[in-house]
Design goal:
ParB/RepB/Spo0J; 296 residues; two-stranded antiparallel ribbon; Conserved hypothetical protein from pyrococcus furiosus pfu- 392566-001, ParB domain; Arc Repressor Mutant, subunit A; ParB/Sulfiredoxin_sf; disordered N terminus; chromosome partition; DNA binding; elongated
C-alpha cells in the first residue's frame, strides 16, 4: 500500500523537464515511456485549450465553485493533454483547467497523450457525449461531427459510446428542426421528447403548429405525441384521444371553476386546443339558480 502511495506521489510531483517538453512528441521518441500511463504536473502557462472543443460555454458560478473545491482539495481527477512541441493541447478537462487558473495554482496534474489531430478530435467528442449537463442539441451536434468529420459509422459510434443505434439516429434527427425549435430545446423550454414528437411530422407548417401548441398549452410529451398523431390523421383513434386529453391549463381552469361554483365542470377542447366549451352539471332549478348567482 505504501509503495502505491509513493508511486502516485512521484507521478504527481514530476514536473516536465525542458528536455522532455522539446524532444518527446511521439510514442517512438526516447523517453516517451515516461509519459504513458503516468500522471505528471504540467505548468498552466504551457497549456492551451483545444480550438475544436465542442463545449464552448462554461458556467461562471459552477467554475468558481469548482475553483474553491480545488483550493481546498486540489485537482482530484487529472486532465488529459496532447503533446504539441513544447506546449500541450487539452483533450479533456478544460473546465478543470479553467477552475485551476481561477484557484491561483500554477500547475495541474495531467495524463499526456501522443496522438494525431483526428484522434484528438475523436477523443474530445466522445468525452463530450458522456457529460451529464449537455443539452439534446449539443449531443446531436456531437454525434453528427463524429459521423461526418471522423468518418465513424453509426454502428462504430454505437459501440464506442455504448448507445443503441436508434438512440443516435433519433438524436441526430433533432437537427432537422428549425432553429427556433432547436433553441427551445437548448433552453429547456421544451424537451427532446417534445422535439421528437414535432419531427415526426413531415410538413414544416405542421411542425410549427405543434410547437406553438406545446408552448401555449404546456403540453407534456404524451399529449404532444397525441397532437402529432391528430395532425397526421385527424380521423385516427389517436386523434380522438388527443382531442379528449386536456392540457394542464384547461385542467387547472376546470378545477378552478368547479371550486368556485361547487358543481361538476367539464371543459371540452377542440383537436387543436384553440377553442372549446364549458359544461356545467346541475341537478335541479335550485342548483341552476345557485350557479347563476355566482356568475352574475
Amino acid at each position: 500500500m505504501k509503495d502505491k502511495k509513493r508511486a502516485m506521489g512521484r507521478g504527481l510531483g514530476a514536473i516536465l523537464s525542458a528536455e522532455s517538453k522539446a524532444t518527446i512528441n511521439s510514442a517512438t521518441d526516447e523517453g516517451a515511456d515516461k509519459f504513458v500511463g503516468n500522471i505528471v504536473e504540467v505548468a498552466l502557462e504551457d497549456i492551451y485549450p483545444n480550438p475544436t472543443q465542442p463545449r464552448t460555454y462554461f458556467d461562471e458560478k459552477a467554475l468558481n465553485e469548482l475553483a474553491q473545491s480545488i483550493k481546498n482539495l486540489g485537482v482530484i481527477q487529472p486532465i488529459t493533454l496532447r503533446k504539441d512541441g513544447e506546449k500541450f493541447e487539452i483533450i479533456s478537462g478544460e473546465r478543470r483547467y479553467r477552475a485551476t487558473k481561477i484557484a491561483g495554482l500554477t500547475t495541474i496534474p495531467a495524463y499526456i497523450r501522443l496522438v494525431n489531430d483526428q484522434e484528438l478530435l475523436e477523443m474530445a467528442l466522445v468525452e463530450n457525449i458522456q457529460r451529464e449537463d449537455l443539452d439534446a442539441i449539443e449531443i446531436a451536434l456531437t454525434y453528427h461531427r463524429l459521423l461526418e468529420e471522423i468518418g465513424l459509422t453509426q454502428e462504430n459510434l454505437s459501440q464506442r459510446i455504448g448507445k443503441d443505434r436508434s438512440t443516435i439516429t433519433n438524436s441526430i434527427r433533432l437537427l432537422r428542426l428549425n432553429p427556433d425549435i432547436q433553441n427551445a430545446i437548448r433552453s429547456g423550454e421544451i424537451s427532446a421528447g417534445h422535439g421528437r414528437a414535432i419531427i415526426s411530422l413531415e410538413n414544416e407548417e405542421d411542425q410549427q403548429v405543434l410547437f406553438d401548441l406545446i408552448i401555449k398549452e404546456k403540453l407534456n410529451v404524451r399529449q404532444a405525441e397525441q397532437a402529432a398523431a391528430a395532425l397526421k390523421n385527424p380521423k385516427s383513434p389517436a386523434a380522438k384521444k388527443a382531442k379528449a386529453e386536456l392540457s394542464n391549463n384547461y385542467k387547472r381552469a376546470q378545477k378552478t371553476i368547479a371550486d368556485i361554483l361547487d358543481v361538476k365542470v367539464e371543459i371540452k377542447a377542440s383537436g387543436n386546443g384553440k377553442k372549446g366549451k364549458i359544461v356545467l352539471d346541475f341537478k335541479n332549478e335550485e342548483e341552476l339558480e345557485y350557479i347563476l348567482s355566482h356568475i352574475k
